[in-house]
Amino acid sequence: MKYTKAKILSNVKVVDGIYKMVVEDHNEVNAGQFYMLKNQGTTLLPRPISVCEKEEGKVTFLYATVGKGTKEFANLREGEYIELTGPLGNGFDVKKKYGNVALVSGGIGTAPMVELAKRLRENNKGIKIDFYAGFRDEIFLTDELCKYTNEGYVSTNTGKYGHKGFVTDLLEVDKYDTVLCCGPEVMMKKVVDICKEKGVQVYVSMEKHMACGVGACLVCTCKTKDGNKRTCKDGPVFDGNYVEL
């Protein structure tokens, strides 16, 4: 798989453990897709990072420094280069008529919701788009999401911001025709269960460890009604009624 060098335009800390990296990129990207990123000559395996936002000539990634590879990313500076390949995966169908939409995310799963909200607003100007975002303690990307949504609801485990508890405590699926979700699997399962009970269509963006990003290594398989599927190649976005969480 071919990797290219991309110039880093900025790489800054957003909150403790969360960084935003903007790099030069001229590819067409769909909301919900991801890139494989690696530090030149240092990181052995690439890391899958969702597209947070795509603008002309550049792409924004939000990443959490949870391991050696992403901690190395945090040390990169403006003007340096990172190797990447993408965009990969199927993303969300932003041209589909979803009706009124709830975007539900948890933690770093909030990252792809910015580009998703922007694309949905561009293609569906009259619909209601609300976001529900859950965090442990510090919040991020809520201001960016507010640009493209009608209402926003925030929860934190500690109660520092918004509702103290889980984001699913706030979700009223009866108000929506569709729920689009990304975050920890335990959270997404709860969201899917609520939607099934209420008869609301739901789509989830799966997060799995990946080695190749193109479906060759089978590291990122997830269970579906038709057996195991590759998250990177067949997903990461699946119908919530099809994937088994």
What is the number of helices? 5
Overall pLDDT score: 91
Low-pLDDT segments:
none
Query: Quick one: how many beta strands?
Result: 15
Radius of gyration: 17 Å
User: How many domains make up the 3D coordinates?
Assistant: 3
What is the general shape? globular
**What share of residues is helical?**
10-25%
CATH superfamily of the largest domain: Nucleotide-binding domain of ferredoxin-NADP reductase (FNR) module
Q: What is the CATH T-level topology of the largest domain?
A: Rossmann fold
Order of SSEs: EEEEEHEEHEHEEEHEEEHE
Oligomer: single chain
What CATH architecture of the largest domain do you see? 3-Layer(aba) Sandwich
Largest sheet entry:
7 strands, mixed
What structural class do the secondary elements suggest? alpha/beta
Task: Specify the CATH class of the largest domain.
Answer: Alpha Beta
